[in-house]
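Onboarding guide, step 5: your first structure request.
Type a short instruction followed by the sequence, for example:

Predict the 3D structure of this protein.
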Amino acid sequence: MQFRTRAIHVGQEHDRATGAIVPPIHVASTFVQPDASMTAPYDYARTASPTRAGFEATLAALDNGTRALAFASGMAATHCATQILRPGDRIVTGTDIYGGTWRLFNKLLADRGIAITSVDTSDTANVAAAMGPDVRLVWIESPGNPLLSITDIAACAEIAHAAGALLACDATIATPALTRPLDHGADIVMHSATKSIGGHSDLLGGALVVRDADLGTRLHWLQNATGGVMGPFESFLCSRGLKTLELRVHAQSDTALRLAGWLLGHPRVKAVRYPGLPGHAGHAIACRQMEGGFGSLMSFELDGDVTAARRVVESTRIFQLAVSLGAAESLIELPAVMSHGSYEPAARRAVGIADGLIRLAVGLEAFEDLREDLAAALA
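The system replies with structure tokens like these:
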């Protein structure tokens, strides 16, 4: 089956008891056992739940993985992946990553004996140079957030595996509709389901998807032990979101590319960061590992100071001033003080996140309306 067909049918079979075309939401916290052996598929909702299992089955099929695990948030999913590490281990990660991930790595894990090495992963020579016998996990994000850098997933997988490390890829921006990192050699894929998978700004969730069944079992044990699981209603909403994921992401990508081209020619804009532009440093790699578009996220810098940038983000009417991405509504924000405010200012500027950088999350509105909204704000 093709991607959009799997998104509708895998894990979402009709209810055989009633014939309902949409599987019911199972809100039960505990499940009656046929005997005391505890071998039934469901016993307690923290361990497994039918509605969550349906969403996990769909997502695993879309990412070409053997198993998916759904969490209460993207950060809960990321944290679970890092719990396979022990004090003395090291993570090699990117500099263009989500602010919450940066905070987890540098403010929490680093204080618990996990060393962190951050490099520009868009140049895989940096990744290779950072490897060592203590590296157990390489964590990349492609496209990166908020600078939209592109990292070669296959090359990083080769480097990580040669050193005996796992490769994890945050594919929240790309979604499985555009990139399937497991096909390029990654061991773990992380999605913030809050974003494009849910797609409607009405849920919080995250997920891990793996190729190796044994790794999936190990991560499920950690998930069950720590308890940060996705609830049944959020699982239902994620399953519903997956049914239209490809259509939404492709439409948003088309609009984002048109807006990026328009911004590139605007006299007040000095730089546009979007991997769909031929002038983007990672465009060739993006064409190789993304299909159907380049995502809904972009950023740009004004030919002006942070005050001018703040004036722009506070002046739009259709683009709403808020963090997040991947939803029907278009959003605008200043990463330096909003989505990436958890970075230390010096660290943020050192990796290229300027104080006046503006990030756009393109929604499903008409291109012409979004263009006119930006034109008015830039004026």
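Each response can be followed by summary notes, for example: The mean pLDDT is 96.
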